[in-house]
Request: fold
Amino acid sequence: MLLLAGLGDRPPGREIAGPRVMEMGAGTGFNAGLLCALLGDRQVTTVELDPVLAAGAEANLKAAGYAPRVVVGDAADGWPSGGPYDAVLATFSVDHVPPVWITQALHGGRIVTPWTSQWCRYGTLALTVGRQGRAEGRFHSFASFMQMARPRTAGAGPAPGPPAPAIGESAPERSSTTLSPWAVAGGDLDAEFHIGLAVPGASFAWDTSGAHAHTRLEAADTTTGSWATVDYDGRTSDAFTVAQAGPRRLWDEITAAYQGWEQLGRPDIDRYGLSSAGRATTVWVDSPATLVAAR
Reply:
């Protein structure tokens, strides 16, 4: 298992019946029940943001004969009083690793979480925790889950869904491209995974209504208001009309990211890794020497 491949280094003299696991996102309690069956109730802590879901999970677990610690809280804060943990498991996808997941894990412990970006929700990240708040590991194929929810203030209304590309009103810069929009957003998950890392904050949607073009790819960064469209006219397949506006030239960034992916040999997701130290994160291909993104 990615989660329990190796155990953390426990402090001398600490008596533990087995590895301790912190699960992020109790949901129905199903995964926590599996962990209890594997490790024992006292070794499992599950953190759930929604108090209604947490109560339901606790009831389901009790009905199944399990009694782990069920905590109502923000997964980004972890749960330090139950640790340190040999493993941290998320049941939702993240676009960064909360630093407390690393600091609340033992040296040598494991962190396993599905991964997402605005461009592509794909992959599983498995990290091994080092010393002084550092962790490093690799991405693996498959897994696609909802993104981590965050607390909302009272009266804020329903939780927003993923940001939809919104075409702004600023005058666009027009050009043409030979890069097919399907190459970057047509279902090649390895290419889309790379673009999600290299062009942070960019999302896309397809418009096939025919209102603007036969087929249009819309890309946007809602944080900066930047946007780009790439139009296919239904006839010519080797040239596409581009419009882009805002502080970022998104199509230029996407094109550069795709070309960078090709120059790396079109790597699949299993060749990528991530190193984290505090709030500094780097993503690389094959080794940390081949940097893809840093934040």
About this structure: The longest strand covers residues 105-114. Residues 10-16, 153-165 have pLDDT under 50 and may be disordered. The first helix runs from residue 30 to 39. The CA atoms of residues 131 and 154 lie 39 Å apart.
